[in-house]
């Protein structure tokens, strides 16, 4: 049972039962996300054939880092693999444009083209709140100041999402 049921909104019925949960974890590597999508295409087909469910309904938690986070966010919003493959084919070249060699010390890719493409797909108001997602989403980023992993979870009961934290806001834009 969720700790703060009032914060779960539309996802409450799905997560209130204490049972084993399925998690899908996706790796990064830029435009190579198309390889991940090729594998997921087969998984999506099998899941649909055997259960009649979309991936966001089959997996309870979808996680990713880098391009895996983009795919995870798309799936958590209910997108199909076909739509994500189309998104990568149409937008991949612009999103994953390499930064100049000197700038690679700071980052591998420039953020602006990616941000604009993601806002096109998910909308300007997309966020990590339970009313925006079909399942839980975990995005793992890197905190530049400490060079440490920085998990961002849509789970309303996650340690850093507790209501006692004044800086907590699940309406973090994607």
Overall residue-averaged pLDDT value: 81
Based on Cα principal axes, name the global outline: globular
Q: How much helix is in the residues?
A: 25-40%
User: Could you name the ranges where pLDDT drops below 50 across 5 or more consecutive residues?
Assistant: 100-109
Q: What is the helix/strand order? A: HEHHEHHHEE
Number of helices: 6
Question: Numbering strands along the chain, what is their spatial order in the largest sheet?
Answer: 1-2-3-4
Cα-based radius of gyration, to the nearest Å = 17 Å
Share of β-strand residues:
5-15%
Task: Assign the structural class, choosing from mainly alpha, mainly beta, alpha/beta, alpha+beta, or little secondary structure.
Answer: alpha/beta
Termini distance?
27 Å
Main sheet overview:
4 strands, mixed
Number of strands: 4
Summary tags:
alpha/beta; 13% strand; 174 residues; single chain; four-stranded mixed β-sheet
């Amino acid at each position: 049972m969720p700790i703060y049921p009032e914060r779960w909104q539309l996802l409450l019925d799905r997560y209130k039962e204490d049972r084993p949960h399925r998690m899908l974890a996706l790796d990064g590597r830029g435009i190579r996300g198309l390889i991940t999508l090729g594998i997921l295409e087969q998984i999506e087909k099998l899941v649909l054939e055997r259960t009649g469910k979309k991936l966001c309904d089959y997996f309870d938690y979808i996680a990713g880092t880098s391009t895996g986070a983009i795919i995870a966010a798309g799936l958590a919003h209910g997108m199909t693999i076909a739509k994500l493959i189309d998104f990568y084919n149409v937008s991949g070249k612009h999103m994953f444009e390499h930064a100049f060699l000197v700038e690679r010390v700071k980052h591998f890719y420039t953020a602006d083209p990616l941000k604009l493409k993601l806002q096109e797909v998910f909308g300007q108001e997309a966020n990590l709140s339970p009313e925006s997602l079909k399942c839980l989403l975990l995005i793992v980023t890197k905190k530049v100041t400490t060079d440490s992993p920085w998990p961002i979870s849509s789970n309303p009961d996650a340690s850093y999402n507790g209501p006692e934290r004044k800086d907590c806001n699940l309406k973090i834009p994607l």
